[in-house]
Amino acid sequence: MIVAYIPPNEFLTSRLKLRPSATSDAEAIFEAYATDPQVTRYLSWHPHTVLQDTLEFLARCDRARAVGTDFAYVIEDREEGSILGMTEVRVQEHAVEYAYVLRRDRWGHGIMTEALSALATNALAHPAIWRVYALCDTENPASARVMVKIGMVHEGVRRRHAVYPNLSSEPRDGLVYAKVR
User: Fold this and answer.
1) For 166, which DSSP code?
2) How far out from the chain centre does Cα 15 lie?
3) Residues 6 or more apart from 125 whose CB is under 8 A from it?
4) CA distance 144 to 135
5) 156-173 pLDDT per residue, tens
6) Torsion angle of C-alpha atoms 61, 8, 181, 140, degrees rounded to 10
7) What is the distance in angstroms between the CA of the first residue and the CA of the last residue of the chain?
8) Rounded distance, CA 79 to CA 131, Å?
9) SS3 of 30-96
10) CA-based angle 146:151:156, to the nearest 5?
11) What is the pLDDT of residues 38-70, one digit of tens each?
12) Beta-bridge mates of residue 77
């Protein structure tokens, strides 16, 4: 019998530390990116306007981790200890889905590529996981490039996939990228 996949509590890469999010991260997340309309443009939530928004988000992350299907990780710079962004690992029967956000001053530095590569490598090494994937809005080429850089292949368009309230109140199409073993 194959044991279900539960991602490690912590991931270390050459530059990054990924660890479980905590409510004590709220102020740093709020200041680093949660209030930035450019960062939240392609996300499923509006920019946070008060610290309580971020605290509520982190409380939802804690509840999801306790259930054992969604695992939110803060991405830290190993040298500075500063919070660069977050990623969520959503475990399904034989697949893992990723969602991610990165503060604007770190865009274009390979941070998210490094983080997702570590996550995907770990998941695909587990005997229960056969597929890792992520989606992004059709107008978000930077996110699509991250997925391609870690070896995901464009599978198609998921029509009317998700609402990105900063772009439209209607569901938008999403690009699907995946890597399989």
Assistant:
1) T
2) 17
3) none
4) 8
5) 999 999 999 999 999 999
6) 40
7) 19
8) 32
9) HHHHHCCCCCCCCCCCCCCCCHHHHHHHHHHHHHHHHHCCEEEEEEEECCCCCEEEEEEEEECCCEE
10) 80
11) 999 999 999 999 999 999 999 999 999 999 889
12) 16
pTM of the model: 0.94
Closest by Cα among 181, 93, 90, 92 to 130: 181
At 159, is the secondary structure helix, strand, or coil?
strand
Q: How far apart are CA 122 and CA 107, in angstroms?
A: 24
Which tokens in the block code for residue 165? 């309230």
136 within 8 A of 174, measured Cβ to Cβ? yes
The structure tokens 């949660």 sit at 34
